[in-house]
Design goal:
Blueprint: H1 8-13, H2 16-36, H3 41-56, H4 58-72, H5 77-81, H6 84-95, E1 101-106, E2 111-117, E3 120-124, H7 132-143, E4 147-151, H8 157-172, E5 181-183, H9 193-197, H10 217-226, E6 229-232, H11 236-243, E7 249-251, E8 258-261, H12 269-281, E9 293-297, H13 301-310, E10 313-315, H14 318-328, E11 329-332, E12 335-338, H15 347-354, E13 364-367, E14 390-396, H16 401-413, E15 420-423, H17 427-436, E16 442-444, H18 448-451, E17 486-492, H19 503-507, H20 525-528
Parallel strand pairs: 3-4, 3-6, 4-5, 6-7, 8-9, 8-15, 9-14, 10-13, 13-14, 15-16
Antiparallel strand pairs: 1-2, 2-17, 11-12
Amino acid sequence: MSRMSDMSAHQAALAPEQFADVMDCFARADKAQLEFEKFTQEQIDRTIQSVAQMVANSQTFHELVEYGIKESRFGDPISRENKRYKIRGILRDCLREKSVGKIGEDKARKLEFYAKPVGVIACVIPATNPDLTPAGNAIYALKARNAIIFSPHPRTAKTSAATINLMRYGLARVGAPQDLIQCLGGRNITFTAEQVAGPVPSDLEFFIKDGTVKINKQISEALMTKCDLVIATGGQGVVRRSYSSGTPAYGVGAGNATMIWDETAAQDLHHAADNTMRSKTSDFGSGCSADGNVIIHESIWDAALAELEAVGGYIMTEDEQKKMFDAMWTVDETGIHRRNDSVALSAADMAKIAGFELPEGKRFCIASHGTGVYNTSVEGAWCREKLTTVLSVHKYCGEFQNAIDAIMAIHEVGGKGHSVGIFSFDDSHIDRLASVARVGRIMVRQPQSKANSGSMNNGMPMTSSIGCGTWGGNATSENVHLHHYMNVTWVSREYETPDWQTDDVLFGEFYNEELEKVQYSAYNSNDAIK
């Protein structure tokens, strides 16, 4: 087990107080989890309701969003506040599932399935989601009867600590062990029975405690090695470290969300444009599912660009686009690199740092000059992931296969395994794309940043962690959700009669009766299958 791993290398790399923080948090979490796994299903469901309500109520989440944006200095408060519905969606999904005892069966195969906790989970929080990531992961972890320890991003450590302490308060008020949810850095608050007996404190500062232990890459790595499972939501560096920790891990892949608008999109171009606007501008384009590219059929090109302008897009001139390139990327002998200082900014701020002025009312910038190049060269930069309020449009001509080819080429540059969207009313096009696209999810006529990770309008599991499969270097291509947070025991009962198939059917045209005449006296075919 990971908890038995040799921690001496981590101890040598950490300050004494950092190593002590990891070990103390784990010991507390382990003790709390052993107590919590004895809770009934009803007690667990009441616990996650209490925890979720503490964070996802509109007033508190509004304050968390404001605090997080002030602390990180990026993000859009209006669209980020809508992420409270993701927490509610995760709670909804969890309340519909069982996680104690027998959770399902397959009567035809005489199988029964029993849920078991994984133990103590480590989770690394990205700066872009300092409130959603801990809340969503904590609800899933608790539903599966686990404890969870978070390593906050240094840039948003106070916001994450406030979120975690709010949830600890939610645990305390229903009598659950508070150390089921913890935060590295010496920021955990333990609430007394008297504190949780009265009204919930209305001042967010009540839930914020200054850290006493430095948070850095090394302490996160030590936590990942110590725990039983890692949920790695963040940059690819975090994901790679989780996979090298020696602990089972679910990581996420890099995004580069791309849409196809085929000729049938002409039936409802305004809807297509509105979807892309909503996806592109959500939290100023910082999410991995925010549309970065739209591949548009030649027959609707002019009308499509007009609709994108109508919903708030601004088509940059060739000169403005060159300036925007310099604001977004640097180029050296090692390649093209995304600048950190222009991530998750409003369109007006993007234009300002690029050196031009954006007309009033415009919400995102559109690159249309020299696009349609899908490779890792400087000329192909516009097909890369943007992580801000800039969208690239690319024209495809002729047959739908050319759009598919463009998608495949873009994913060789970035985003393989993540997602693709298509605005089409041609089911054959959707089927052809789904048959070959190397992605874990395809959204049909939906805004990807709202839909990929689950929404109230589709059946995707709610999550803040999008797996990209082996294409993206991940262990799963699914949305990481409840069943990833639990172990499952299979109970099998013997069939009354064996489920045996004759050799001529099994081998088909390759069956050779002469080769099957050999008999072994020690056992017969019925014995062989037991």
